[in-house]
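Structure first, sequence second, as always.
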């Protein structure tokens, strides 16, 4: 019996340590934080490096939750030799495909000095399509990084969500402040990326 208890205690400790290791957040892009934009502060909350060329980091305000956030900052970096227009066009094609079954989805692109901003709205609807469960407005700023060591595409984005219980307020705010977020992202000095 004593051996079984020791085994269970050891197994429990191993599982706890494994879960803690999986929840570890790593600043793969060496971006000094926190990120401050539009008078709000966002801290690194989640990161992923699923393959040798792709890095993703997400930032939240201290009172936010990654599963049900109101505002989230994302920084993605894809290492490689790419054309910026191809990355933007790929996302636009994805949105066009989604729009075929969801007419609420819309987007607009802006180009300035070889950089792009993509402003888009997507929704998750009820199965019968009569109710919006989640509305998400994203503003992505795409920039080509040409530094020889860290060559690739940087995507700096902000995502704002409205949920079923506050969806009307979300759309009213979007209507009243549609250009504010674009200006905040467009004027934000993009961080330098230094891969770990």
């Amino acid at each position: 019996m004593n051996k079984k208890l020791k085994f269970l205690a050891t197994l429990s400790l191993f599982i706890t340590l494994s879960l803690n290791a999986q929840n570890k957040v790593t600043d793969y892009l060496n971006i000094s934080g926190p990120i401050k934009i539009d008078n709000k502060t966002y801290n690194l909350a989640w990161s992923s490096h699923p393959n040798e060329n792709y890095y993703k980091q997400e930032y939240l305000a201290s009172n936010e939750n990654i599963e049900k956030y109101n505002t989230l900052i994302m920084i993605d970096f894809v290492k490689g030799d790419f054309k910026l227009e191809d990355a933007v066009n790929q996302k636009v094609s994805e949105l066009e495909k989604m729009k075929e079954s969801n007419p609420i989805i819309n987007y607009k692109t802006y180009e300035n000095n070889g950089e792009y901003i993509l402003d888009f709205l997507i929704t998750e609807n009820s199965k019968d399509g009569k109710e919006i469960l989640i509305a998400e407005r994203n503003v992505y700023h795409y920039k080509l990084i040409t530094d020889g060591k860290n060559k690739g595409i940087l995507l700096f984005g902000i995502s704002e969500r409205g949920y079923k219980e506050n969806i009307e307020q979300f759309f009213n705010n979007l209507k009243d402040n549609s250009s504010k977020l674009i200006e905040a992202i467009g004027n934000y000095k993009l961080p330098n990326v230094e891969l770990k």
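Margin note: Residues 85 and 101 are 25 Å apart (CA to CA).
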